[in-house]
Write a structure and sequence with these properties.
The chain has a single domain, classed as Alpha Horseshoe (Serine Threonine Protein Phosphatase 5, Tetratricopeptide repeat). The chain is built from eight helices and two strands; from the N terminus they run βααααβαααα. It has helices at about 5-30, 40-50, 60-75, 80-95, 105-120, 130-140, 145-165, 190-200, and strands at about 5, 100. The chain has a two-stranded antiparallel sheet. The radius of gyration is 16 Å and the shape is globular.
Length: about 210
């Protein structure tokens, strides 16, 4: 059974930070069609803060996620950034005191993060937000024990969710004001999630 530790998490964050150098403008452009045009810049700032965060000694995965959550909260005041901090705090609570976590638990961890984000932000599944992408990945990897298989399924599920929701209207946030005009457009949060899934998965997930 595959597991992950805080070093694996740090490598994932570093890969995401590297990926944002190429994704920032694409995400800003997608957001400019529906909102303030700053999703890419915000995510680059938040993920950069995570990558620079100091990790506590001892290898406690939960403590590491807690440090990331604090870094995310300090780096942004945006709604999406707040939701990311909420997800990280959920991960911290669920992995507290553990130096290794089975990959098979990832789906359940993501599902709990999804629920916490829904409670915090007020959006629902089907509203065409990052929550829909997160839900798709959580479902796809639940019970998967192999790291390679989990990465592959996560990438596929995030892409499929992006494709499926492209033809639906945004129902929350500033984008909801555009109603049916958002049909055919990617939600910036969902697009970011799909792009970052592929970036951190590496060759086995592409």
């Amino acid at each position: 059974m595959s597991t992950f530790d805080i070093q694996d998490v740090k490598r994932t964050v570093a890969a995401a930070a590297t990926a944002m150098t190429g994704l920032e403008q694409e995400l800003n452009a997608a957001d400019a069609k529906l909102g303030d045009g700053d999703t890419g810049g915000m995510l680059a700032r938040v993920i950069g803060a995570l990558d620079s965060a100091s990790m506590p000694e001892g290898g406690d995965v939960g403590a590491g996620f807690s440090a990331y959550a604090k870094a995310a909260a300090m780096a942004t005041g945006s709604s999406l950034g707040t939701l990311l901090a909420t997800a990280l705090m959920t991960f911290a609570r669920e992995t507290k005191g553990r130096t290794e976590v089975p990959v098979a638990e990832l789906g359940n961890l993501l599902a709990k993060a999804r629920d916490a984000m829904m409670a915090r932000g007020g959006a629902s599944l089907g509203d065409k937000t990052i929550l829909d992408a997160l839900d798709a990945v959580a479902t796809a990897i639940t019970g998967i024990e192999s790291s390679e298989e989990a990465r592959s399924k996560a990438v596929a599920a995030s892409r499929e969710a992006l494709d499926a929701f492209r033809q639906k209207p945004n129902k929350v946030g500033r984008a909801r004001m555009f109603a049916d005009a958002t049909i055919g457009m990617d939600d910036p949060g969902m697009l970011a999630f799909a792009r970052l899934c592929a970036a951190v998965a590496g060759p086995s997930g592409e």
